[in-house]
Design a protein that fits this description.
alpha+beta; single chain; five-stranded antiparallel sheet; 17 strands
Length: 410
Amino acid sequence: MQLRYNCRVCPTPAQQEALARAFGCARVVFNDGLRARQQARTAGLPYVPDGDLSKQIITQAKQTPERAWLGEVSAVVLQQALADLNVAYRNFFASLSGKRKGRKVAPPRFRSRKDNRQAIRFTRNSRFVVLDNGRLRLPKIGDVPVRWSRSLPAEPSSVTVVKDAAGRYFASFVVQTTDQPLPETDSEVGIDLGLTHFAVLSNGTKVTAPKFLRRAARTLRRLQQDLSRKQRGTQNRKKAVVKVAREHARVADTRRDWQHKLSTTIIRDNQAVYVEDLCVVGLGRTRLATSVHDAGWASFTGMLEYKAARYGRTFGRVDRFFPSTRMCSNCGRINEKLPLGVRSWVCPCGSTHDRDVNAAINMLAAGRAESPNACGAQVRPASVPAPRGEAGIRPDAACSTRSVEGISVL
């Protein structure tokens, strides 16, 4: 499978100027291509093919005085900028036709030099080289020092140089890896995600939510106040913007590092992992949006998924409408809805359940039911009679809600 390895790079002032020139040229080519296709659509002309657009925007534009400076950067950078435009259009058309799953994708927009993130990509055709002394040689930029945290397992197929909002430079290498599966274990786990406890495992383990953004709230408040006092367009305001971006980057890096360590531990210790398919987009529109985004459930489940595929583990998502909280993990009875303040409850069968642990156990059972058995068939649990009042269709069924660790999910 293909993986990305991000490393911090430290370009010299001259190399930073060359990178800024490359960022600007890639942005201009992208905008020129987008403008050409928009003008063709307005004039009623057919869609401009990729080859004709490349010839018009790059090859012919270099011969004009207005775009002669495009020859100062690598041609691969310009071609990859048009490739990004083509991918954006394909995603937009696939979203319109319904071939692309998920939320609707908007049409491509013009790039701005004021965007917080600037990036260019080099492929093998550009002949970039990782030198023996650890430096990265980029065409028309030079040998850029790299802070290697680990060695690359294979030759990279491409490298993307990124400048983030905090003014940091990174090199993102795409590498084809062939990792060996981890030794098999007999342990399987279901995970219930929440806010008070970030993750509750079916074996009873509870992982407290670190709340990195909440911890940095005081520092961010002070930096935002300093930023609001700066006059727009001044250098002091630009410096204050960078300070705020650096603090946000520190929070994001800390959260990402913590999630990587936790997901690696879970994948290493369990042969199968099952989590709930939460609607994070919908939860982000509630009054608990700050806590939801601070938790980072989507990135964590994404780490579990790709690490399971990388190391030969089983990963599954349980339907978000599965009543994991209300179902008794012993008898399978689906009880009435529980108030959010009730953290433990007693089933009529006599079992006492912790709300989160019971949900995690039900996640594990539901994940196993959706997994194929030895013959390749789907195994589902036996049907359970619904309690009184739940067998029919209620008038408010379309607006029914369920609770997830203090959150009301529509």
